[in-house]
Amino acid sequence: VVLFPQDPDFKKQTLELMVEQKNFMDAKAFLNRHQDSLSYEKRLYFKALIHQQTGANVRAWFFFKKLSKNYPFNILYRYLLATSYENLNLKRKCQKEFRFIEDFIKQVPRIIQFQNDSAFSNILQQMLLVK
Questions:
Q1: Which residue has the higher pLDDT, 17 or 51?
Q2: Distance from CA of residue 75 to its chain's centroid?
């Protein structure tokens, strides 16, 4: 698959590569320049990662908190929220998030048995899909 610069996937992958290579200033500039081509969720996610990696822990916490509120069953976001609490020395909140993750993971087999039930389909999509 060939991706072109106007393709949102190309921009997302470029941003992921910049963050992975710890090129945070360029990643931040790239994100600001191309934020209209990324989903709201991805913009928040990359902003949070960049802030966390550059030591702006309060700003990272703000974005991870927002992501966790909007996507409460996304375990990655909950984990990153827990690490942001840890970075801010908020141990109880950190432990609470890790307990949520642990409890959620224990429930996954029970939840999956309902995957064909329409009442659970939306919940499962949010819980099991990482966008």
A1: 51
A2: 8
**Amino acid at position 39, single letter:** S
- Distance, in Å, from the CA atom of 2 to the CA atom of 10, rounded to the nearest integer, reads 9
Residues 73, 111: Cα–Cα separation, whole Å: 12
The reply to whether the predicted model has a pTM over 0.70 is no
Which comes out higher in pLDDT, residue 84 or 113? 84
Q: What is the DSSP letter of 75?
A: H
Nearest CA among 102, 107, 103, 101 for reference residue 120: 107
What is the C-alpha separation between 37 and 131, in angstroms, rounded?
15
Dump pLDDT digits (tens) for 62-93.
Answer: 999 999 999 988 888 998 899 999 999 999 99
Looking at the 3D structure of the chain, how many domains does it have? Answer: 1
Note whether residue 74 is domain-resident.
Answer: yes
Q: How far apart are CA 126 and CA 23, in angstroms?
A: 30
Q: Is residue 80 part of a domain?
A: yes
Say if 9 falls within a structural domain.
Answer: no
Cβ contact 114:120 at 8 Å: yes
